[in-house]
């Protein structure tokens, strides 16, 4: 390992290469010799000046009027890269005071500036121009990348300035200029004693009527002068020491300007006021002056439309509110919620001179009132109302303008508990769910009314809760009606696996348009028939014998929990597809429809006494029992004893009131087809009368309607 001797200094300018001869030997072996070449290159070396490295440090003396940020002292004779320069006042140096690589390092308790390049600069604003000597002591440390450093204190003494102070020999000056002086003409010139003197106008800042040459102090006009008087505040200062300054006033008077009109501030007035502003409130105070610079002889009047002059008035230079500004009145909307007027300012003298100040006042709305619920909010809706049907309209009102700016919402929202919705803007109630008067006869809804667009601030709103009652109107249930109720059909079966439409049922339900459902409830042996909507379809198989089917189709109608049904009977004669069909036989026969018979019955209501009702009831009961026995005897003795016996025995076995068909109408059919079917009665399920019977005298089969007593020959 080869190291540099302690205290040795390398200088590439003197010796740039060293040749070292190295010898090494081991016991019993010859000595070996080698060479090591060390090249020295030029680099940056930290060297502090002799005064800086001395025990006393270094001292710098400067004048107090030295320019801001002027270099006062250089720590290094030349800038070096990779150095850290830090500084602090005596007694405050610590590890946290060192800010390596910070380009600007400020010293504690001193306005001096120490840069990373080792320069001490004067303060940004210069030194305080004091008459006493100021002393600043800095402890400065310089460190390179290798850790070499040198540090010592630097004493900076600031001596009092020897230059003369800036002063105005004439701090107050009055100047009179003639009328009609044009722009950029010299009005006057000011002069201040001192060094590096510069001039500036401090007041007035607006309007800019004059300008000053910052070096010579000449004051010139910037436009044609029309004012009577002008007061200028001039400042003179030392350019190198801005704190050294002085001020002076210049009064400029114009001659021959009496013919100019008054001048007012503001020259135009535009404002927005809320409608709740109280009468007597001041909207604006004009600051007007005449050619003499005073407002002593000025008079103020208000001109404009009658509406503006009735709502506003002038009291001296003040524009005030005369009456209330109600935004919600129709008259306010007529004028567009704006008032225009003109304030006329008159000055004395001959001829009279005047100034006109236009005025535009806009009235803004204030949300003052809460919405009001309607007087009556009770509605009635039929329980069969369809989805989306209008129940009614909740007509809330609001005294604030604009009218009709209410929003409606249903508390609790829509759901099974309250199957209604409300339009946000119109307040219309609509049905959005099923209604059933048997489950609930009325609903109590809570509607929230919220006003909008009634205030300049959209967040300021008022609301109110209103009770709304909806009563359900019960609608009588209607049984579906099918025309005809009984059909007899002849079809020829198609090929097996096909589907063959038989007939389409013509049924209609209630007036609310509820959808009807169809179900085959009887006679569908082996599933040979199926329903597709209201169409009966036959599914052929390998049947070889003619067959007759009596189908019972139940038709359901109604909505909600109120379902009503009726039964349609279909007598379908199926001829196998391989069996020849007589030419006279048609595929389908449509029964004739009977004309409906309208019966009008008028009932007279009589309220008899209680004893008469009791007697009449007992007598009627006995009479009905006697007539029933006589009728039973006659029926049993009829020649159609076989039919009646079959009917009676079947009717006793079934449940009371369980009928084969309700209201029916039977059609006339061809008897020839009935003769072909003799001897083939339709078998029904045990214990249930399916309407098939056979005449005991002739042996012909027929269908019997147990309700009307009519028979249908088959």
TrEMBL record:
SMART domains: CA
Coiled coil: none
Ranges where the Cadherin domain occurs: 169-269, 265-373, 373-482
Sequence ranges of Basic and acidic residues compositional bias: 670-680
Keywords assigned: Calcium, Membrane, Transmembrane, Transmembrane helix
UniProt-listed GO biological process terms: homophilic cell adhesion via plasma membrane adhesion molecules
Gene3D superfamilies, alphabetized: Cadherins
Protein's name according to its UniProt entry: CDHR4 protein
Originating organism: Sclerurus mexicanus (tawny-throated leaftosser)
